[in-house]
Amino acid sequence: MTTPPARPVPANAYGDDVERVLVTEDELHTRIQQMADKVSAKFGDEDDDIILIGVLKGAVFFITDFARALTIPSQMEFMAVSSYGNQTSSSGVVRILKDLDRDITGRNVIIVEDIIDSGLTLSWLIKNLKNRGPKSLGVVALLRKPDAVKTKLDLELQDLGFDLPNEFVVGYGLDFAERYRDLPFVGVLRPSVYR
């Protein structure tokens, strides 16, 4: 996995708040299709639909595009957890704001994660969901900051989209104080915006 090169920022509603683009819209969609193909092949012989779990709000764009790219039936579930607030890094203290609406016992479950940053929230989520007795539990992560990961993740990583530098990124679901999620690319937020 290589870190994508930085590119100029296309015109957007946020002016020059984004310093540079790390992953373009086309690169996102191409890689998501590849990831969905891999998961479809792995679970193609299963009788039950796989359950995709997205963590609100960041994973909404990714889980939607990922589910549409699958060639096997899937069902979506959502959780809302908080570990960031309006900060730029995870506090490591996780609170459930919205839990799953269904039982996942005996089901094939994939956490569809937008970004592995510190890994603290994902590590907590994996432990929480394993205790619910799924048949299998894996993770597909679109983005990862390998230099920021603070915990060893006990998981089956089905696939990973892109490794990123340890900078504050926004777009394609990623936000700062609830802004920038709607950008169709992933870019670096200018430090002057959040300092």
UniProtKB/TrEMBL annotation:
<dbReference type="GO" id="GO:0052657">
    <property type="term" value="F:guanine phosphoribosyltransferase activity"/>
</dbReference>
<keyword id="KW-0479">Metal-binding</keyword>
<dbReference type="GO" id="GO:0032263">
    <property type="term" value="P:GMP salvage"/>
</dbReference>
<dbReference type="GO" id="GO:0005829">
    <property type="term" value="C:cytosol"/>
</dbReference>
<dbReference type="InterPro" id="IPR000836">
    <property type="entry name" value="PRTase_dom"/>
</dbReference>
<comment type="pathway">
    <text>Purine metabolism; IMP biosynthesis via salvage pathway; IMP from hypoxanthine: step 1/1.</text>
</comment>
<keyword id="KW-0460">Magnesium</keyword>
<protein>
    <recommendedName>
        <fullName>Hypoxanthine phosphoribosyltransferase</fullName>
        <ecNumber>2.4.2.8</ecNumber>
    </recommendedName>
</protein>
<comment type="pathway">
    <text>Purine metabolism; GMP biosynthesis via salvage pathway; GMP from guanine: step 1/1.</text>
</comment>
<dbReference type="InterPro" id="IPR005904">
    <property type="entry name" value="Hxn_phspho_trans"/>
</dbReference>
<keyword id="KW-0660">Purine salvage</keyword>
<dbReference type="GO" id="GO:0032264">
    <property type="term" value="P:IMP salvage"/>
</dbReference>
<dbReference type="GO" id="GO:0004422">
    <property type="term" value="F:hypoxanthine phosphoribosyltransferase activity"/>
</dbReference>
<keyword id="KW-0808">Transferase</keyword>
<comment type="similarity">
    <text>Belongs to the purine/pyrimidine phosphoribosyltransferase family.</text>
</comment>
<dbReference type="InterPro" id="IPR050408">
    <property type="entry name" value="HGPRT"/>
</dbReference>
<feature type="domain" description="Phosphoribosyltransferase">
    <location>
        <begin position="28"/>
        <end position="176"/>
    </location>
</feature>
<dbReference type="InterPro" id="IPR029057">
    <property type="entry name" value="PRTase-like"/>
</dbReference>
<keyword id="KW-0963">Cytoplasm</keyword>
<dbReference type="GO" id="GO:0000166">
    <property type="term" value="F:nucleotide binding"/>
</dbReference>
<keyword id="KW-0328">Glycosyltransferase</keyword>
<dbReference type="GO" id="GO:0000287">
    <property type="term" value="F:magnesium ion binding"/>
</dbReference>
<dbReference type="GO" id="GO:0006178">
    <property type="term" value="P:guanine salvage"/>
</dbReference>
<dbReference type="GO" id="GO:0006166">
    <property type="term" value="P:purine ribonucleoside salvage"/>
</dbReference>
<dbReference type="Pfam" id="PF00156">
    <property type="entry name" value="Pribosyltran"/>
</dbReference>
<keyword id="KW-0547">Nucleotide-binding</keyword>
<dbReference type="GO" id="GO:0046100">
    <property type="term" value="P:hypoxanthine metabolic process"/>
</dbReference>
